[in-house]
Amino acid sequence: DAGVIQSPRHEVTEMGQEVTLRCKPISGHDYLFWYRQTMMRGLELLIYFNNNVPIDDSGMPEDRFSAKMPNASFSTLKIQPSEPRDSAVYFCASRGQEVYEQYFGPGTRLTVT
Amino acid sequence: QKEVEQNSGPLSVPEGAIASLNCTYSDRVSQSFFWYRQYSGKSPELIMSIYSNGDKEDGRFTAQLNKASQYVSLLIRDSQPSDSATYLCAVNRVADKLIFGTGTRLQVFP
């Protein structure tokens, strides 16, 4: 299995620009999670989906953040407009229906200047 | 009180020794517990899961769970320099969400 795939691996953008992060979960996994990791706040859950439906977006910091999952094999996290404080590593993780173990992708390191 | 607490470390142990990593959690209804290893600049990697009180062994790793004390630990036997990483404790507290601790940095010196 290829594991969770994320793109891009690195993104450098200027403040005010739109940023789109992409994730392909492990085939057959019904849950998809978006996390953000910073030194100050650690690993934070932003939003998660079950069967392509957003279940809990309480961790999304503000309206500038949005996430979609149009099908079982693709999800996006969009930041518009981006700000320097959004600089972090964004991880996508997935898991199966009957188990709680989550598997992480390689992450996207976002730098907003 | 944080939901999942870990000592940030660093925990320094000599090569060949046993490294003991600890984690406490606040919610008694928590049912599932996980240890992830994260190398610098990499993503968290699942190394152990435990659901029942007691010990669970996998190779050099042993996870220990005590629900009465709300305590979960990870023992690494015969520690190697390649074990040097940050170890994250995660707890399944509510529905499908995992709550992560801030991690303990382990350093294994030759």
How much helix, percentage-wise, in residues of chain B? under 10%
Instruction: Calculate the terminal CA-CA distance of chain B, rounded to whole Å.
Output: 36 Å
Specify the structural class of chain B.
mainly beta
As a whole number of angstroms, the C-alpha radius of gyration of chain B is 13 Å
E-strand count of chain A: 11
Low-confidence runs of at least 5 consecutive residues of chain A: none
State the order of secondary-structure elements of chain A, H for helix, E for strand: EEEEEEEEEEE
Mean pLDDT over the full residue set of chain A: 95
Rg for CA atoms of chain A: 13 Å
Describe this protein with a few key phrases.
heterodimer, A: 113 residues, mainly beta, seven-stranded mixed β-sheet, globular, B: mainly beta, six-stranded mixed β-sheet, five-stranded antiparallel β-sheet, 55% strand
Walk me through this protein's architecture.
The complex is a heterodimer of chains A (113) and B (110). Chain A has strands at 5-7, 10-13, 19-24, 31-38, 42-50, 53-56, 65-71, 74-79, 88-95, 103-104, 108-112. Chain A is mostly beta strands. In chain A, strands 2, 4, 5, 6, 9, 10 and 11 form a 7-stranded mixed β-sheet that branches. A 4-stranded antiparallel β-sheet of chain A has the order 1-3-8-7, with no helix packed on it. Chain B has strands at 4-5, 11-14, 19-25, 32-38, 45-50, 54-58, 61-66, 71-76, 85-92, 98-100, 104-109. In chain B, strands 2, 4, 5, 9, 10 and 11 form a 6-stranded mixed β-sheet that branches. A 5-stranded antiparallel β-sheet of chain B has the order 1-3-8-7-6, with no helix packed on it. With 110 residues, chain B is an all-beta fold. In chain B, a hairpin with a 4-residue loop joins strand 7 and strand 8 (71-76).
List the helices and strands and how they pair.
The complex is a heterodimer of chains A (113) and B (110).
Chain A lengths: L4 E3 L2 E4 L5 E6 L6 E8 L3 E9 L2 E4 L8 E7 L2 E6 L8 E8 L7 E2 L3 E5 L1
Parallel strand pairs in A: 2-11
Antiparallel strand pairs in A: 1-3, 3-8, 4-5, 4-9, 5-6, 7-8, 9-10, 9-11
Chain B lengths: L3 E2 L5 E4 L4 E7 L6 E7 L6 E6 L3 E5 L2 E6 L4 E6 L8 E8 L5 E3 L3 E6 L1
Parallel strand pairs in B: 2-11
Antiparallel strand pairs in B: 1-3, 3-8, 4-5, 4-9, 6-7, 7-8, 9-10, 9-11
